[in-house]
Write a structure and sequence with these properties.
Chain A: It is a multi-pass membrane protein. The structure holds two protein chains of two kinds. Chain A is mainly alpha-helical. Chain A has 14 helices and two strands; from the N terminus they run H-E-E-H-H-H-H-H-H-H-H-H-H-H-H-H. The longest helix of chain A has about 35 residues. The chains are: A mainly alpha, B alpha+beta.
């Protein structure tokens, strides 16, 4: 008698996340997908067809078109936006890794009683709104901002550095905002590592530096990979940072999408932009999953 | 295996009795404190070349710390360690001619068996062909020839243990340190491996220092055992010395099972003492050499006697060194039977009887009255 009930409980526990994903991920995705094949219309909502009356569904389906995708393919603005986004995201990811790895390593090496405190310091910025923190960077980086005042007062520069509205500002913003996503998975990996392995390596004649490259780094590689994807994927579609810090000179895809949607009110084209962005991001996600599967199979 | 020749060689191997023999490893007044607490307390000991030396103690006795000091993972707070005439002070672990086999094995999970073993050789910049020869040789030694390409997690516990051993042997260290080397193996495999390890040690001629909490393991494998407690060595000796001639109550109690009778010396006739126990028993015992000069009439002393040196009888016995009590527990173990007798004063005396024939000559059951007797030289007089 207990068995079928147990089975029901199992189905519910396993089913819940699927229901969640179906409602909040799959359905919105299908809506956007359908929108990307729709046509712009001067109406509310501003597209057609709308699939209102089931009797006209066949007629509605015939209205679907790939024009939006052709439009995007023919306008170099979109292509350039994608390339710029991927380039900025890649460079930012590398920079975040270069800063995040030593940080995570230092945390993992710290005495046990300090670790919760150090972890809190990494997470602390999340207590303030992301938007406010990005605005704060404008105050720091602008020509008459804190950084320039400081450097001028030190006598290091005469003229203020122009950082805001450049790519440099975007890099600073992304690295700052996404650093915890790099640090946390690497730290989790390093902290879990058996310290005896390093003793064994030293015992077998390996210098500490060599042990790092032959033992520590390869064993933390999964954390590095996770951190890189956690930074790269959202950075490609990032909108707030390039909009506030990058100015009009840098066109990233998130901003292009925003402009299509809000300035041009072209929901179908912006949906198509979003779908293509998704396709671009699926590639690294699939690679990541395959690497993880291979690791798990070892 | 060359077991036959081994026995004879082992017997004659006792450099510690030779005053001219040069110690291979010297611990000189080594102290190691952690946060003000001494894990090793002013410890001095000598280990000889080709010796199989066991550090035996309960957890927290400092045995592992001593091993880690020798490997260089810890530095002595005071004192020094000399290995083969060279002061090890300030020499980092990667430059010491010792290799360690870790209790957890510490195999590199991202490398296969061959890569694990090759790791140490690569650090020496050994040519690849020579390296491969050495790896093949050591894999054969631990009987894992066909497992070179496996990852550690694809191996059983026993196989992992062998890889760890191979990895620590492949560099041909002057000293091999073994931290509870058989701790993770099941009983049967452990017993097999014990003999394999001792054979291997003899064949290779490497000095072994092993840390263990298992006295049976230490007695089976080691030439000499150092019994440790509270960061000190309480006694160093061959397994028979440690078992039959413990120099302290702690060692007597720690190694094997022992009955200890506390009492007062009432009379003395040469080496023969009369000891009156608290329960009013009068024991006639031989004073062992060391305590001869010390134990005088009126002094407190303790007599320690092992269960297998007591005789048990269901019939009433008379004479000196006879105790009687109620059979409280009987444990039939197969090769022997162990009895717990409850004396009239409540003290439990343990007696073990070898089951030399299939039918027991002594018919005793729970709550029977039983008598035990022993010879004056069966036990050992310990100073309190």
């Amino acid at each position: 008698m207990a068995k079928p009930r147990k089975g029901l409980f199992r189905s519910i526990t396993i089913g819940l996340p699927y229901v969640w994903l179906a409602c909040l991920f799959l359905v919105p995705f299908l809506i956007v997908l359908k929108l990307s094949f729709s046509q712009i219309a001067t109406a509310m909502p501003p597209y057609t067809p709308t699939f209102g009356d089931p009797a006209t569904w066949w007629a509605s389906i015939k209205q679907l078109t790939i024009d939006n995708y052709l439009w995007i393919a023919n306008d170099s603005l979109y292509f350039n936006s994608y390339v710029t986004s991927v380039r900025i995201a890649l460079i930012s990811t590398v920079l975040t890794f270069l800063i995040g790895y030593p940080l995570a390593y230092g945390m993992a090496q710290a005495p046990q009683r300090w670790k919760p405190f150090l972890l809190m310091l990494v997470i602390l910025p999340f207590w303030t709104s992301f938007l406010i923190r990005v605005y704060a960077w404008i105050g720091i980086l602008k020509p008459e901002g804190l950084l320039n005042q400081f450097l001028i007062s030190l006598g290091l520069i005469d003229q203020p550095l122009i950082i805001t509205n450049t790519e440099t500002a975007i890099f600073i913003g992304i690295v700052y905002s996404y650093l915890p996503f790099m640090v946390l998975p690497i730290f989790a990996n390093l902290d879990r590592m058996d310290k005896r392995l390093l003793e064994a390596a030293a015992d077998l004649g390996s210098t500490p530096l060599k042990s790092f490259w032959t033992i520590t780094f390869p064993l933390s590689f999964r954390g590095v990979l996770a951190g890189c994807f956690l930074v790269f994927i959202p950075a490609v579609g990032e909108f707030v940072i390039p909009d506030l810090l990058g100015g009009s000179g840098t066109l990233m895809i998130g901003k292009t999408l925003w402009m299509e949607f809000f300035n041009n009110r072209d929901w179908p084209v912006s949906s198509a932009v979003a779908i293509i962005l998704l396709l671009i991001l699926v590639v690294p996600i699939v690679i990541f999953q395959r690497v993880q599967d291979r690791e798990a199979a070892r | 295996m060359k077991t036959k020749s081994l026995g004879s060689v082992r017997k004659s191997f006792s450099p510690w009795t030779d005053p001219d023999a040069k110690p291979f490893i010297r611990f000189e007044n080594v102290t190691k404190t952690f946060d003000g607490t001494a894990a090793i307390d002013d410890l001095s000991a000598d280990v000889y070349e080709r010796e199989f030396f066991a550090l035996l103690g309960a957890s927290g006795s400092g045995k592992s710390t001593l091993l880690r000091l020798l490997a260089g993972f810890e530095t002595p707070t005071r004192g020094r360690i000399v290995l083969d005439g060279e002061d090890m002070t300030g020499i980092p672990p990667h430059k010491r001619p010792v290799n360690m086999m870790f209790q957890s094995y510490a195999l590199f999970p991202h490398m296969n068996v061959e890569q694990n073993i090759a790791f140490g050789l690569k650090q020496d910049g050994m040519a690849k062909s020579e390296r491969n020869d050495r790896i093949a040789e050591v894999l054969k030694l631990v009987k894992l020839e066909n497992y070179g390409r496996r990852k550690p997690h694809q191996l059983s516990g026993g196989q992992q243990q062998r890889v760890a051993l191979a990895r620590s042997l492949v560099k041909r260290p002057k000293v091999l340190l073994l931290d509870e080397p058989l701790g993770a193996l099941d009983k049967k495999l452990r017993e097999e491996t014990q003999f394999e390890l001792t054979d291997l040690q003899y064949e290779l001629g490497i000095t072994f220092i092993m840390v263990t909490h298992d006295q049976e393991e230490a007695m089976t494998m080691a030439d000499r055992i150092a019994v440790m407690g509270d960061g000190r060595i309480l006694q160093i000796g061959t397994p028979p010395e440690i078992y039959e001639a413990p120099t302290s109550r702690f060692v007597a109690d720690f190694i094997g099972t022992v009955n200890i009778f506390d009492g007062t010396v009432t009379a003395r006739n040469g080496d023969r003492l009369k000891l009156e126990t608290g329960a009013g028993h009068l024991l006639e015992v031989d004073a062992n050499e060391e305590s001869v000069s010390r134990a005088r009439s009126g002094e407190k002393a303790a007599y320690a006697v092992r269960p297998e040196k007591l005789r048990i009888s269901a019939k009433e016995l008379t004479g000196p060194n006879v105790l009687s009590g109620e059979v409280w527990e009987i444990a039939y173990i197969g090769d022997m039977t162990s009895f717990h007798l409850k004396m009239d004063d409540g003290k439990i005396v343990r007696v073990s009887m070898v089951n030399a024939s299939r039918e027991s000559p002594v018919q005793l059951t729970w709550h029977d009255r039983a008598w035990v007797s022993f010879d004056p030289d069966a036990g050992l007089l310990l100073a309190n």
